[in-house]
Every structure is written in C-alpha cells, then in structure tokens.
Amino acid sequence: MRNLVKYAGIGLLVMGLAACDNNDTKASAESAAAESQASGQPISLMDGKLSFSLPADMTDQSGKLGTQANNMHVYSDPTGQKAVIVIVGDNTDEALPVLANRLLEQQRSRDPQLQVVTNKSIELKGHTLQQLDSIISAKGQTAYSSI
C-alpha cells in the first residue's frame, strides 16, 4: 500500500510538471468552479485495497498510456491538464522520506527550476504519508504539484 501511494505521488508530480505546455488557462479557471461541484466517481484498485474518488470529468486513459505490464493506471480530464497516475510497484524497505528525496533529486536533475514548498511526513487515518509540494515555472507557465 505504501508503494502504491509513493508511485501515485510520483505520477502526479510528473503530470503536474508536464502541464507546463503554454495552453491558455483562462478556460480551465472557469471550468474549475464547475468541476468542484461535480460529484466524484469511485475507483477501486488492487482488489479493493486502494479506493479513491475522481472528479466526474476524469476518465480512464489506461488503455492509451498504461498497460498491465507496467502496472500503470491513468485517469485524466478531456484537456489533459489534470491527471492522476497510479503505478503499482514492488515492495521496498526504504522509508517514504528517502523515496521523496530521491524523487526530488531526479526531478531537479531534469529541471533546475524546481522549488520545494513542503516535504514532510503527515499522518492520515493512522497511516504515515509523505507530503511533497513543489512549484515549477517554465515558458511563462507555473505548475503546482502535490504528492
């Protein structure tokens, strides 16, 4: 379960940073208010071990971007501006802070503009998670990512 959360977070960071593609953000700001009022759709993975809700406008894109061979599930909105990626990985003995720091170093090697806002352990329903919030600016666009 811990690895699933780790890989889901990594996927969110990657998709958040990929959103810096010079698209017009005025239309997405207007639709954000409508989306926040839309009901979510339940998603259940790993035989019910992981469950979460997605906004109503997000659909399963796993057939286009992920395969069962790479254990990747991709959900995105029609514009591709928002995405949730879940990657099921192997068990590891490494702690979440170690994995988060490795992710940060890998991302910094690709993009030196990466700014870390928060990197801390948090407790949620009795489970220890790692919160990693970052900001990246490129070509006049800013992308916020939270894992």
TrEMBL record:
Pfam families named in the record: DcrB
Write down the InterPro entries for this protein, in alphabetical order. DcrB/EagT6
What PROSITE patterns does this protein map onto?
Answer: PROKAR_LIPOPROTEIN (PS51257)
Q: What is this protein called?
A: DcrB family protein
User: Origin organism of this chain?
Assistant: Salmonella typhi
Q: What is the lineage of its organism?
A: Bacteria, Pseudomonadati, Pseudomonadota, Gammaproteobacteria, Enterobacterales
